[in-house]
Amino acid sequence: MNRVWLAALLASLCLPGWAAAGDARAGERIVSSRSQGLCLLCHPIPGQPDGLQGTLAPPLAGAGSRHSAQALRQRLLNPERFNPDTVMPSYGRSQGFNQVAPALRGKPLLTPHQIDDVVAYLVSLK
């Protein structure tokens, strides 16, 4: 785990008011991507065609009204804390995954900056 990622993770876990500014448009692209965030495989997402999004997880519409930026960040970094049986991956973890392509081994699913962007997008969903 690199130092920048570790610092962001520790800050997000230890400082309740901490929230780095992210780019909501970049976050929307990550959330809607079929090759990066993959959120739409499980979550209904505003603005996405009904047949091309999942229904296994809660809708992301209104996420910013239901949760604070800090709570959304925690759900991305440690989803099993909220649901021990979740199939949602920890987007900040870099170990413990199965069948990872060699080029991606040891890397988190999203960088701290990308997590900031996703949080900014989710907060915008009122």
Low-confidence stretches: 14-19
**Structural class designation:** mainly alpha
Oligomeric category? single chain
Radius of gyration: 14 Å
The CATH homologous superfamily is called Cytochrome c-like domain
Task: Domain count, please report it.
Answer: 1
What is the β-strand count? 0
Helical percentage: 25-40%
Q: Which outline best applies?
A: globular
> What is the overall pLDDT average?
86
CATH topology: Cytochrome Bc1 Complex, Chain D, domain 2
- Classified by CATH, the class is Mainly Alpha
The biggest sheet, with number of strands, parallel, antiparallel or mixed sense and barrel status, is: none
**CATH architecture name:** Orthogonal Bundle
* Number of DSSP helical runs: 5
**What is the CA-CA span between the terminal residues?**
33 Å
Percentage of residues in strands: under 5%
Order of helices and strands: HHHHH
